[in-house]
Amino acid sequence: MGVEGDLFHEPSGEVGRLLPRSAGDAVAAASRRSNVVMSARWATNVNGWLLLLPSAVLLVTFTHYPAVATFIGSFFSTPKGARPAVFVGLDNYQAMIEDPIFWQALHNNIIYAVSTIPLTIVLALFMAVAVNAKLVGRSFMRLAFFTPTVLPMIAVANIWLFFYSPGYGLVDQVFSVFGVPAHNWLGDEHTALACLIVVAVWKDAGFFMIFYLAALQQISPNLSEAAALEGASRWYFFRRVTFPLLMPTTLFVLINAIINSFRLIDHIVVMTRGGPNNTTALLLYYIYEVGFKFWDTAFAATLTVVLLVLLAAMALGQFIFLDRRIHYQ
Amino acid sequence: MSQIALQNVSKLWDSTAAVDGVSFETDPGSFLVLLGPSGCGKSTTLRLIAGLEQVSSGRIYIGGEDVTDLAPAKRRIAMVFQSYALFPHLTVSENILFGLRVRKTPASERSRRLDHVASLLGLGALLGRKPSQLSGGQQQRVALGRAIIAETPVCLMDEPLSNLDAQLRAEMRREIRALQQKLGVTMVYVTHDQSEAMSMADKVILMREGKVEQAAVPDRLYAQPATVFAARFIGTPPMNIITLEVAGGTTIIANSEAPILPTPIDALLLGIRPEDVIIAEKGISARVINIEYLGADTVVTCVVGSQFVTARVAGKAALTPGESIHLVLPPEKLHFFDAANGRRRDEVSAIATPDTTNFVQKVLV
Ligand SMILES: Nc1ncnc2c1ncn2[C@@H]1O[C@H](COP(=O)(O)OP(=O)(O)O)[C@@H](O)[C@H]1O
Ligand SMILES: [Mg+2]
Fold it and tell me: ∠ CA(B331), CA(B336), CA(B339), 5° rounding?
């Protein structure tokens, strides 16, 4: 390419392509040259911007403007009836720090994240490796593991609502075989959050498995054969080769899992409504309550800003910290 | 150094045989090439030797030991894959050392062997790189390095040069051969490239549709192909295969007046290599239909009767398509094959040679 390019093309750049090349035009062309270049560039730019406009408008209207408005709103009071919003500085943040329910929601959310994320990822990876192996009924297994993901969230929550119902729910029925007495799983402060964690793991593991499965299929079977010839056990191969090669997927899954765990709301609305006694109130659910039940929009905006900052910080931290240790193909 | 022997080995996929009753053996420390067209079962045979596939029937021996039921790691072999199968996230040195780490070889021994292999293959400056930062030829060397550091008596290679450009391929060919002789390992090398096989092998196993077509040293394979398939597969351009017919008590080239044998023999094919066909003043009448100039020589395609005959002549031939010329087919260079089963018929060559010369001269003069 290099040689041909140099020999057969004059290094005239854009002008050469835009202008007529006959000798008679050359003089006139030279004087027009700079103008034409300018207007051509300008036209290209306008073209590009016009093409981007529809999606840019949507993005600005529904993403950037609300985010900025929320941020600004968190420094004002909530307008009520005849009283318009007034600038209150950091008052809302002060109130948040003094709000015990905010701290409880944050605490709940951290427990929820710290338990669902590793469980989901380990389970997803385990299922992917199992389903990727040369098993009989492999396609059936793939389908089975993936089913929870395609069900709508509300439907999933309703199914589990039944599973957890005291006395006649599936969980109690199974436990009753072993002589465990009936229990109000979702009504008990000690078990309600754990119940939500189980549902989340059950639902997300299949989804993340698909990503792991796709990544596993990218790994050439020759690699495991080469390792087998050297006498590497399957576990050794997984540890030294498969797992490192899956790291980009793990990072992707990790970030998604974190985001999922901080924006969970559907299951809570259907199954517990944050109860009992706020033990299942996660941040987003609390924001929803504050904003749309108590109509304290300024306080809700403040909570939202905190949630966004938390998420951004975590995503950034992961990319910076993990990126150095990941091999991308 | 280890001898490898296959006894009547078959491998079925579903019900079709990819490898069908294959038997051969190698001398210890020799270079064996499995040659054949794509899909003939070369890779499957190699993978059976490696233990990456299980035989459907038959036995495999390495160094006198029956390894048919042994795991790959227990067979004391190294293998180079067509795709190289380098671990993309590991550096060159980690790739080469992978097996030694698995087997927990002491660190001092590891670094001694790594130094040795790196200097043998000229990899010294690349040890810290990842495979993606290497050229195809360099990746190939790393794959070789990973195979030879194990110091196993047997090395298997599946089309290791097929991803390289022609020049590099010729270079690596010599290098692999030299390496094999220096280390004294028994090599089983798979290729579909007959020139690679001829230039590297001590012995060639020519395969076709899962069966051994001919097993021979390269010069014998060239000089005495056992079948029409072997005759056409070895050599470029391939050997002329000419249909003969019986006419007036003699055997001639089909639909021509070109005499071949003084006796009538039915269902016979004549083989002659293009480099053995001579263009002369007198001889069999032929018409030129195509001329292909290749630099050192020229490939001239002619028609004799209803048959094509290709001749390879040195330098640039001063011929034009449509021109009438005369060909001489030297009797001692003729190969005869059975038209029905493609097998070589040496007894025809034997009766042909002394008589033919006189006969042909008499008829043509
Ligand atoms: N894993 C497999 N499953 C089914 N058929 C296979 C498999 N591997 C190879 N084959 C078939 O076996 C035949 C021989 O294949 P192979 O040994 O790879 O040929 P070669 O290496 O000579 O090109 C081919 O027809 C191929 O389709
Ligand atoms: Mg192959």
Answer: 145
